[in-house]
Design goal:
Layout lengths: L2 H16 L4 E6 L2 E6 L2 H15 L6 E4 L3 E5 L2 E3 L3 E5 H4 L5 E2 L6 E5 L5 H14 L4 E6 L4 E4 L1
Parallel strand pairs: 4-7, 8-9
Antiparallel strand pairs: 1-2, 3-6, 4-5, 6-8, 9-10
Amino acid sequence: MTVSDLDRLRSRLGRLEDLFPGCHTEMVGGSLMRNPVRPFPGRTITRLRADLEARPPSGWSLVTGVAFVFDGENEFCPGLAVIPAEAEAENSGSYQPGLIEFVAGVVSPGSIRRDHDVKPLRYASRGIADHLVLDPPRGRVVTM
C-alpha cells in the first residue's frame, strides 16, 4: 500500500465517521463497524491510561482515539496504544500498526467477536505481541 493509498483510505473513513456522531467507528474486514460510545469503556481506558502514565517507559507514549491502518480493509482505533514518543509527536490522526508496542481495547456488546477473534489475528500478523482485551460483558481480562 502506498502513501497515497493510505491518504485516500484515511480521508474516506474520516468522512464516513463524521456521519455517525456519538459512535466509535472502525473498518474491519472491509466493513464499516460502528458502536455507540458508552461511558464504561471510556472510563476503563482512562483508568488504565492513568496507571500506565504513572510509570511511563522511556521513549514511549500512550495514544488514544487514533487509527492504525493495517490494509485497505482494516483500520482499528484501539482504546489505548503505546507507540514511540517521536511518532506521537507527529500528532497524526492515524499511524502504521508496526509502531504499536502494546495495545488495549474494551469490548462492547456489539464488538465481542471482532475484539476476540478478528483483531488479535491482525495485531499478531504485525508482530504486536502485547494485546490486552478488557471484556466487561464476560467479566474478564484477556491477554493475547
